[in-house]
Amino acid sequence: MKTYLVTGGAGFIGSNFIHYVLKNYQDAFIINLDKLTYAGNLKNLKEVEKKENYRFVKGDITDIPLVQSLFDQYPIDYVVNFAAESHVDRSIESPMEFVKTNIEGTFVLLDMAKKAWLIGEEWASGKKFLQISTDEVYGSLGETGLFTEETPLDPRSPYSASKASADLLVKAYYDTYKMPINITRCSNNYGPYQFPEKLIPLMINNCLNAKDLPVYGDGKNIRDWIYVEDHSSAIDLVLNKGIIGEVYNVGGGNERTNIEIVKTIINTIKELLPKEDSRYNAISQELIKYVADRKGHDRRYAIDSTKLQSQLGWSTSIPFEEGVVHTVKWYLDNSKWLEEITTGEYQVYYKKMYLDK
Ligand code: NAD
């Protein structure tokens, strides 16, 4: 029996990870601590909300008394820290929340875990703090090369700088106190429940509403894409088998330019949508609209996951083409989910980011 404190579990990757754990482990108990920002959505967890071995706690990871009370109340074995402000564009507009949640929040979790788990000079056995980080902490690559775990940190946006800062705090708790930690640094995820500000669901949503498809700069920035369930399997492996103190890169091995992604989305929607659907004819490459580039836009990310593969035997199981079909199909089947989160604040955000510029 393992008790997990999953933070940010109502977001995209966190909710997918909770589904993954509850599906694969009968004896897991999960506490999901989430502030429910614009990116947190309890509908992502509808199927599990009544389970005996799942609890939701609404709250902020920077709230010391609250985090401490969770450690007092539950025999927490694993902290899996997904909670973050996660969108680069928002970090460029308003970095403050990124510093608060991503850096201060990680510190609070580390410190409360240390209080609960360090007994005298000894760490209680079977405990681990897993920091969910990103390949963006490594900066930007040229046309060749891959990020390894030894690549120096060189974050270039307020988002990636806040994530790199959090990683360094986690590393410091290992170096200083020998806290049982791991850090995973993953490439771009896609799949069900992703908020439609990120590239793939943004393009799906805009296609379905016959809106312009905004592509930054020349559309040739490259990202390495991984299906979210493959990220969950990597996290699960690192949590249970990762060597204490180590960093593990997680990548899908699918490098694509942004414009390739957008065209793939258009083609996939057209394959899946019945020709009689009223939206069918409006969906075409003519919707693509190149817009002013993101400030400081990193050109290329690509990640070397050899360490995770050779040390822990991890591999991906969902090829990109298959993952994209699953994802588009999920959004088509869950149009209500999408509609509900693309009203109100989302419309204000969208106008500010893409229409007023
Ligand atoms: P997301 O924005 O979808 O979800 C973040 C969740 O954190 C939301 O549910 C939100 O309500 C919650 N949250 C925010 N601030 C909080 C706070 N102060 N206290 C408690 N909860 C708070 O993000 P995501 O895409 O699921 O990413 C999850 C993690 O994975 C992040 O740490 C991110 O840096 C990392 N990551 C994401 C990707 C990706 O491609 N999305 C890739 C690599 C790493």
TrEMBL record:
Alphabetical list of NCBIfam families matching this protein: dTDP_gluc_dehyt
Keywords of this entry: Lyase, NAD
Single GO term (MF): dTDP-glucose 4,6-dehydratase activity
A single BP term in Gene Ontology: nucleotide-sugar metabolic process
CDD domains given in the database record: dTDP_GD_SDR_e
Gene: rfbB
InterPro entries according to UniProt: dTDP_Gluc_deHydtase, NAD(P)-bd_dom, NAD(P)-bd_dom_sf
Gene3D superfamilies: NAD(P)-binding Rossmann-like Domain, UDP-galactose 4-epimerase, domain 1
Cofactor annotation: NAD(+)
EC annotation from Swiss-Prot or TrEMBL: 4.2.1.46
Name the UniProt record assigns to this protein: dTDP-glucose 4,6-dehydratase
NAD(P)-binding domain mapped to chain residues: 5-325
Family: Belongs to the NAD(P)-dependent epimerase/dehydratase family. dTDP-glucose dehydratase subfamily.
Catalyses which reaction(s): dTDP-alpha-D-glucose = dTDP-4-dehydro-6-deoxy-alpha-D-glucose + H2O
